[in-house]
Amino acid sequence: MTDSPEPCTACEGGQTVTVPVRVGRARRRVGSQDGWCLRCFGTGTEPASCDETREEDNP
To answer: Out of the domains of life, which is the source (predicted)?
Structure first.
């Protein structure tokens, strides 16, 4: 039985996130735009931690 990967906590598996757009010296919010999730790079799954990767690379 294969475990399904956990969804990304930042985008909740949706692969995109909404980012506020701010302008001016006071950095007032003027809207928002969608963009790729930079935590999972658009895969929608939780990335492996550095410790887990190291254990896999060095048996």
So the answer is: Bacteria
